[in-house]
Amino acid sequence: MAGLTQLSEVKMFGGRNLRYRHDSAVVGTPMEFGVFLPPQAAAGKVKSVWYLSGLTCTDVNFMTKAGAQRVAAELGLALIAPDTSPRLPADAKIPGEDDTYDFGSGAGFYLDATQDPWSKNYKMYSYILKELLPLVVAGLPVLEGAQHTGIMGHSMGGHGAITIGLKNPTVFQSISAFSPICNPMNCPWGTKAFGNYLGSDQAAWKEYDSCELAKSYDGPAREILANQGTADSFLTEKQLLPEALQAAVQGHPKLTLTLSMDEGYDHSYNHIATFIESHLRHHAKFLS
Question: Are strands 15-23 and 47-52 parallel, antiparallel or unpaired?
């Protein structure tokens, strides 16, 4: 396929787990992503759900840990898993890029950085929307259009799924998240990332904050599904703030939030694997 180099292929539940590499013009470095194509894709194009991973992750984590392929195969859903940041070669590394787990490599926060030195490469928002999405639609048996496309994610990726979904209702029809960073403007992870990537003007931060986007949302009706574990240490550390998203959506004429507080579950893929089926069925309900 033009522009895509296949790295691997494994059969699973009658479908195919694949990994690809391509040269990204948007982030300026080769990027890799994972795909599950259900068995229905052998006969024609299928619906898709995009999954955005959390801090420190790559595209591999979801495909190997979430256990999503069985239900995706049943429902005829392709799964697309991008990486979480650019992966710059050693001779082009940005100073400080690999110093901490919550900023830089593996922590792109699904935004377009505006501050030097990050603005040249850290453009994960545009990468997904303007480059990877068209590339996947053109090169793989995946249907184009919001009515066929959902987005979900975990933690930082939950933040990405909700913000990208709300900002682009003509691209994504359905939205869900596991343990999302709901209000990054008001949590340590978010203020660190936004301050470095976007600068000190908090008006720019609002463009990537789920709560702020929910308050101003005026698109078509959307039902957001979210699961949050009660034993998640990041919940008690006030990194996630689901209560802020609840407040932002309460009484909204176009948005509803179904938030499940799951007793005893933590921030790991054990939580995701337990509830992934309900999320995929949520997406299938809204995708034609």
Answer: unpaired
pLDDT in tens, 171-186: 999 999 999 999 999 9
3-state secondary structure of 47: strand
Q: What share of residues in the chain are helix, strand, coil (percent, to 5)?
A: 40, 25, 35
CB 163 within 8 A of CB 209: yes
2 vs 263, more confident = 263
Q: For residue 267, indicate whether it is catalytic.
A: yes
Catalytic residue among 22, 148, 159, 267: 267
- List the catalytic residue out of 232, 271, 279, 283: 232
154 is catalytic: no
Amino acid of residue 42:
A
Q: Measure CA of the first residue to CA of the last residue in the chain; give whole Å.
A: 26
Contact partners, residue 151, CB within 8 Å, separation at least 6: 49, 50, 51, 52, 161, 164, 165, 172, 174, 175
Q: Please enumerate in sequence order all residues whose Cβ is within 8 A of that of 146, keeping only pairs 6 or more positions apart, or say none.
A: 169, 170, 171, 172, 173
C-alpha span between 40 and 172 (Å, rounded): 21
d(CA 264, CA 27): 39
The one catalytic residue in 48, 155, 174, 210 is 155
Instruction: Quickly tell me which residue has 């699961």 as its tokens.
Output: 227
- pLDDT score, position 2: 60
| Known catalytic membership, residue 83 | no
**Closest alpha carbon to 54 in 31, 82, 74, 80:** 82
Buried b or exposed e, range 196-228, using 16+ CB within 10 angstroms: bbbeeeeeebeebbbbbbbeebeeeebebbbbb
Model pLDDT for residues 222-273, shown as the tens digit of each residue: 999 999 999 999 999 999 999 999 999 999 999 999 999 999 999 999 999 9
Contact 153, 51 (CB under 8 A): yes
